[in-house]
Design brief:
It is a single chain. The two termini are about 20 Å apart. This protein has one domain (about 1-25). The chain is built from one helix and no strands. By secondary structure, the protein is mainly alpha-helical. It is elongated, with a radius of gyration of 11 Å. This is YbaB/EbfC family nucleoid-associated protein. InterPro entries: YbaB-like_sf. It comes from marine sediment metagenome.
Length: about 30
């Protein structure tokens, strides 16, 4: 469970980082 949480957290962080780079534009299906 801890590993899954870590993976989910890293994906969420990647989404936030990507959203910042794209000016907050949401790209469905990217993750």
């Amino acid at each position: 469970v801890a590993i899954n949480d870590a993976i989910k957290q890293s994906k969420d962080e990647a989404k936030n980082r990507m959203a910042g780079l794209t000016g907050g534009m949401n790209i469905p299906g990217l993750f």
